[in-house]
Inverse folding.
């Protein structure tokens, strides 16, 4: 049996919940009700972690982009200052 990565499992769990395939999947396992509920809870938790992970990634990169834009703005301001000092006739 091939081992599935955590990221692949999160993606599959999220996809199953989003398309409601999770119920068909659990039914195909032919397990008792208690086990089915445990599997459903596990897959639901994993699906939720996928959503949180995506939000965390998005927040992280948005913060990086904001800092980069700020740095670029500061550099542009400084470049304008230097350029104005280098113009002929300016003291």
């Amino acid at each position: 049996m091939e081992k599935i990565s955590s990221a692949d499992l999160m993606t599959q769990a999220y996809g199953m919940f989003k398309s409601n395939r999770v119920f068909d999947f659990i039914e195909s396992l032919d397990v008792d009700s208690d086990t089915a509920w445990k599997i459903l809870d596990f897959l639901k938790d994993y699906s939720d972690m996928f959503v949180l992970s995506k939000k965390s990634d998005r927040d992280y990169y948005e913060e990086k982009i904001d800092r980069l834009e700020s740095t670029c703005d500061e550099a542009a301001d400084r470049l304008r200052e230097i350029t104005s000092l280098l113009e002929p006739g300016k003291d």
Observations:
- DSSP finds three helices and no strands in the chain.
- The chain has a mean pLDDT of 85.
- The longest helix spans residues 33-86.
- The two ends are 77 Å apart (CA to CA).
